[in-house]
Amino acid sequence: MNQILKLEEASKFLAAWWLSWYLGFEWWMFAAWLLAPDIGLTGYLLGPRVGAVTYNLLHHQFLAVLVGMAGVWYHIPECMFAGLLLYGHSAMDRMFGYGLKYADAFKHTHLGWIGMKQ
Fold it and tell me: Is the model's pTM score more than 0.85?
């Protein structure tokens, strides 16, 4: 992936981490919960189609924004944190080349094939 796109995703990740700290959460909470969205990988136990849906649900940045904004709207700090965590996690994944999944294969993402030279 282009270096500028990686830098953009890195800045999204750092912004999410900083905002969670700014909201009053300890810095280590973001780090401790950072891999929680990968629970969506368990859908792959039921096949690539279900796995792609469950993975994409927890790695879609629009959903992360919706969750965070619901927290702002309803004054629920934990919901704001969850939105920032989902957003930061998906940015981190995209920074490393892991995109949203297609239903045909785990390694087929919207950023290309994982592990293939481009």
Answer: yes
